[in-house]
Amino acid sequence: MGLLSLSIWVPIAFGVLLLALGRDEQANAVRWVALIGAVVSLLLTLPLYGQFDNSTAAMQFVENVPWIERFNVNYHLGLDGISFWFVPLTAFITVIVVIAAWEVITHRVNQYMGAFLILSGLMIGVFSALDGMLFYVFFEATLIPMYLIIGIWGGPNKIYAAFKFFLYTLLGSLLMLIALIFLYTQSGGSFDLAKWHALPLGQTAQTLLFFAFFAAFAVKVPMWPVHTWLPDVHVEAPTGGSAVLAAIMLKLGAYGFLRFSMPIAPDAAHAYGGFMVALSLIAVVYVGLVAMVQQDMKKLVAYSSVAHMGFVTLGFFIFNDLGVSGGLVQMIAHGFVSGAMFLSIGVLYDRVHSREIASYGGVVNTMPKFAAFALLFAMANCGLPGTAGFVGEWMVILGAVKFNFWIGFAAASALLFGAAYTLWMFKRVYLGPVTNDDVKELTDINAREFLMLGLLALAVLAMGLYPKPFTDVMDVSVAELLKHVAISKLN
Amino acid sequence: MIDTISWITVYPEIVLMVMACAILLIDLGVKTPLRNLTYVLTMLTLAVVAALEAHLAVAGQTYYGFGNMVVSDAMGNWLKCFAAIAVMVSLVYARPYAGHRDMLRGGELFTLNMLSLLGMFVMISSNNLLLTYMGLELLTLSSYALVALRRDNVSATEAAMKYFVLGAMASGFLLYGMSMLYGATGTLDITQLFKSISSGQIRPDVLVFGLVFIVAGLAFKLGVVPFHMWIPDVYQGAPTAVTLMIGGAPKLAAFAICIRLLVEGMRPLAGDWQQMLMVLSVGSLLIGNLAAIAQTNLKRMLAFSTISQMGFVLLGLMSGVVNGDAVTFAANAYSSSMFYVITYVLTTLATFGVILLLSREGFESEEISDFAGLNQRSPLYAAVMAICAFSLAGIPPMVGFYAKLSVLQALVVSGQPLYLGMAIFAVLMSLVGAFYYLRLVKVMYFDEPITATTVNAPADVRVVLSINGALVLILGLAPGSLMALCASSVRQMLGM
Predict the structure, then answer these.
(1) What is the dihedral sign for C-alpha B205, B206, B209, B215?
(2) Average of pLDDT values for B332-344?
(3) Does B323 score more than 60 pLDDT?
(4) CA triplet B473, B476, B482: central angle to 5 degrees?
(5) φ, ψ at B128 (rounded to 5°)
(6) How far is A165 from chain B (nearest CA, A)?
């Protein structure tokens, strides 16, 4: 078994173990086993970085064994510069989520922890699958644990949210399934992604495929106007669920654009590039404005996620080096920052049990340590230089200006909205005098919360100050992808 | 003189029949309330029969016996093997339930099951229209009796009456169609039938007229729209243990006679019956899924879900023969249907197993709300039920996904725009279907339990149910071998 397989199956094995043997009476043991499982899984992904070769765009850590011979489906895994960073990111966020749930989740702990560990393995599977069907299986399977997480541990309206999440994303994926089968037929009976990338396709076929993939990935990202599930789901999901959803699951969609839509249907991607750019700009500008008027902190961060993911898709569909790498960097940065934002809201929610901005005010007076972290994450969310949030957005804007000045201009001005809604929220929640008794009685974060936020803060700063390890890994693969996408597949 | 080959083709059936009669006699002396001896003997017999069939299937030879009356081929042998196992599993689940409900006063539950299995065997291996009909009658007559086994129960007797009247009408349809074919071709032998239809000498209007009745009869037995009315009523009204028996293994036999009659016998008329199947499957997918949403009774919901699942099976059957490269597509399509039916039966068994388990003495657990908070009462059985629900909804990595995948693949690979449209329609309908399966998961996992009673199961039920649930997941992680088995046996049946 290769490292990549271990990264997928070790967390799943730990998760299954917890589901099978865990009891609420021994919740503490369950928590420790979950933490050990998550940390071991993270440690397993680290040697990948040591062995990763930056100088080639070829797939690395490849494992390829037949899986379903009747349909020529292979258990085919591999990483390149595009997918690489999401593997450690997923494992890292899982560790954080396990820590975040430590004292908060008190019933059915084993199922909670088990679901997150299984989910972690499945998401790593999505990023490393090089076989269309294997990708689909992992992609869809992630819905099951997330559905249960939202539905069991969610807020008052959790059932509506769980169903909306599941059915909304399932509709998109089912259309993609037809596309995958169509490609299987066209390629003479193969689910191999590399073969699909090289497969010549007519304009009509490409257009249909592009929109079938669009249905799956745009919902997942989510792009405007199919983003409406995200705020509902975020509001109801438990803190850990929101963090994983924002940090990793949204990236599955954006990743799909790079791995499927663009290389398989390059001509359609070019033909509808303007359409994608327009949707992305609407997400960046309009959804940014929507975020500003939210009364609920989680909803605000959810809308800000849509806006930030708009930068990602904008970067992808301007088809230049800076844009695509910038989009990728933005995805990773957003993984850290949005995860941190949701966990910060979770810290407040655990104490006051309210997500309304109006229930707070002057938190800095009672929780100074926590407010410092929150300020850092807020700054990262608005894209302050020196934090992770800056690098990706700046690269995308540069790329956009190169592509078309006015698109770059629009994207850049959207940064202003980002700063406005984040800082305004920060002001209303943390600054000013203490306005009510709830806030007066707040206790500052304990060692566990300090550890969890501290790790995220380190990641946010490290990526902001020294993004080179991230961009170095991507460069060659992104250049190769763009070279491939530039060549027409017609005739 | 009857040659040895003939005996080879039927000796599992002979074992089954002899043992069914013997067990009926032995049971007269059994005094224990749960009829332990009868149970053990029945299990042993079924295990032996399943093993014999598996042995024949692995050998992979095709034999015709008794003057072409019966055929023994890999497809039939595998289906018979799975049917025997399915009956075994349903008896394990059914026995405690039946014991609590006064259904084990005699050993009829076991004998009738063995006889209905014998009927399935005859249907599966028949190569003659009349023999097919006899097998079908043996199966359905035993089933009517099973439904009515709880004779003091009003809903059960009502269900038995409905089942009998509608079932008899369906048999009439089938028989009428068969007589039409016999009149046109002068033969009851399925192989001869195929030859004389492909000769092109027979008047097509008579053939198609007969075909319509045959398809209607088959549609009745499969329970697809618009011949589905009996399914919800019988599923709901019959004692749950019997619902399991008529909803499980007989689907395998129904699939087999579809293959034998339509594919082996009337492949030259494929253009006609494919259109009929298309209409039937569109109706089933639509009505089955939409009606299931509105149900509050779990058995009734599963009945409508069955209708939609059978729609999928028909999609596979209809996508077989198309212009040009006919036989390649056919093997692909029919094996996907076969895979679908087998995995469907596997999943259904576990689903009803859990329902039976939750029914206690004097309490039928058949409303969806009875499952509220099952996860807190028994995480294991909730997990089994959830795996089945996700499988029926077609979510990977459960086996139901691969069943849907192979049927969709058969549709898309045919390259016809109409079939591509059907695939998209089927996919959208399975989205609708996902809703009510998810609701079942929701009730089990998200709602609070109304009763705190723990779920107690006898050891045999617990073990078999766990294995059954695990298989739905494990076959999803490694579906390759079962798919290959279906593909190779269908290819052999088609003579490739």
Answers:
(1) negative
(2) 91
(3) no
(4) 120
(5) -145, 135
(6) 12
Q: Quick one: A396 exposed, middle or buried, by C-beta within 10 A (0-12, 13-18, 19+)?
A: buried
Distance CA B126, CA B220 (A): 19
pLDDT tens-digit series, residues A252-274: 999 999 999 889 988 988 899 88
b (16+ CB within 10 A) / e for A428-460: bbbeeebeeebbeebeebeeebeebbebbbebb
What pLDDT, on the 0 to 100 scale, is given for residue B106? Answer: 80
Residue B10 confidence (pLDDT) above 80: yes
B116/B167 Cα distance (integer angstroms): 15
pLDDT digits (tens, 9 = 90+) for B191-217: 898 888 888 788 888 888 999 999 999
Structural domain of A339: 272-491
Looking at the domain assignment, is residue A184 inside a domain? Answer: no
Q: Pick from A140, A148, A184: which is nearest to B445 by CB? A: A148
* CA atoms of B303 and B309, how far apart (whole Å): 10
Give the containing element (helix H, strand E) for A79: strand A73-79
- Helix segments in B319-378, DSSP class H: 326-358, 374-377
**Angle of the B298-318 helix axis to the B240-247 helix axis, nearest 10:** 0
For residue B113, is pLDDT > 70?
yes
What are residue A131's DSSP bridge partners?
A192
* Residue A333 in domain: yes
**Of B202, B217, B224, B372, which is closest to residue B288 (Cα–Cα)?**
B224
Q: Which helix (H) or strand (E) holds A64?
A: strand A60-68
The CA angle B417-B423-B425, to the nearest 5 degrees, is: 105
**Cα A412 off chain centre by:** 22
**What b/e string do you get for B242-271 counting C-beta neighbours within 10 Å, with b at 16 or more?**
bbbbbbbbbbbbbbbbbbbbbbbbbbbbbe
- Phi, psi dihedrals of residue A203, rounded to the nearest 5°: -65, -45
CB B389 within 8 A of CB B438: yes
Residue ranges of alpha helices (H) inside B65-128 are 74-100, 108-125
- Whether A147 sits inside 8 A of B438 (CB atoms) is yes
Q: Which residues contact A332 (CB under 8 A, 6 or more apart)?
A: A85, A86, A89, A388, A392, A463, A470
* Least confident piece of the model among A102-111, B223-232, B325-334, B378-387: B325-334
Chain B contacts to A (CB-CB under 8 A): 375-376, 379, 383, 390, 395-397, 401-402, 405-406, 408-409, 412-413, 415, 420, 423-424, 427-428, 430-431, 434-435, 438, 441-442, 445-446, 478-480, 483-484, 487
Instruction: Give how many domains chain A has, as a whole number.
Output: 1
Q: What tokens appear for B178 in the block?
A: 């068969």
The pLDDT score that the predictor gives to residue B321 is 63
Q: pLDDT digit string (tens) for A42-91?
A: 998 888 888 888 888 888 888 989 888 888 889 999 988 888 899 999 99
The answer to whether residues B75 and B335 touch, using CB atoms and an 8 Å cutoff, is no
Confidence of residue A295 (pLDDT cuts 50, 70, 90): confident
- The ipTM, to two decimals, is 0.90
Lowest mean pLDDT among B63-67, B142-146, B335-339: B63-67
Is 0.80 topped by the overall pTM? yes
Does residue A322 form part of some domain? Answer: yes
Percent of chain B whose pLDDT exceeds 90: 43
pLDDT at A491: 64
Per-domain residue ranges of chain B: 271-496
Does residue A485 lie within any of the structural domains?
yes
Q: Using the beta-carbon criterion (under 8 Å), do A175 and B390 form an inter-chain contact?
A: no
Which pLDDT value is given to residue B221?
87
Pick from A167, A152, A164: nearest CA to B373: A152
pLDDT for B327 equals 61
Looking at residue B496, its pLDDT comes to 63
